[in-house]
Structure formats: structure tokens, C-alpha cells
Amino acid sequence: MSETNQAWSPEEIESIKERILMALETVIDPELGIDIVNLGLIYEIEFEQTGETVIKMTLTTMGCPLADILTEQIHEAMKEVPEVTKAEVKLVWYPAWTTDKMSRYARIALGIR
Hints:
Layout: H1 10-24, E1 28-29, E2 34-35, E3 42-47, E4 52-57, H2 67-78, E5 86-91, H3 104-110
Parallel strand pairs: 4-5
Antiparallel strand pairs: 1-2, 3-4
InterPro entries: Fe-S_Maturation_MIP18, FSCA_dom_sf, MIP18-like
Domain MIP18 family-like: 17-89
Pfam family, one: FeS_assembly_P
């Protein structure tokens, strides 16, 4: 993660957020074997002009023991996006996660209709 003093346009910020999302697709839930984006765990990405990034996500269950592992993997994935100078993962519980948040790909892979 590098220092930057550049002012990003709204279009550039959207492009950076898209690359952040692509990097998050490399973070695989070890229990389900599917990435956290397709599982619908990523709720919001905030990218500031300073490069500071907040990723709001949830887990499939409140007591999920994977929170630390996933957070660590997210920090690793953010190293692939040079504009991100600092990453923070915030766990949110509302709205509660349901299988409705999963992508079609994740549903097919897990055999959920």
C-alpha cells in the first residue's frame, strides 16, 4: 500500500472500487469454498481521496469463527490495489445476511435454489 497525494475523479474512484471488488473476489471463505463477494458478504466499499478504504462486510453467522482469517485475507488482497493506502474491515450485522444475497454462481456451486 503506497502513499498518494492525487485527487481522484468520481470515475476514477468507481474504477478503483471495481478493482477493490475484484481483489476481494480472491478472498475465499474456507468453509464454503466460495469468494466473499459472490457469497454476498461485502456490503459497501468506501474509498477516500487519501487512499484509506473501509470495507463493510458481514458474515454468514454472528458467531462465525472465520472473522479474523477473512479480515487478514482482505488486508492481503488490498495490497494488490496500489491506490489503497490503508484498509479497515468493519463487520456489520444489519441487514442480516441471507442466502438471497448470494450470486447465482454461488447458489449453483452450493446447490441452493
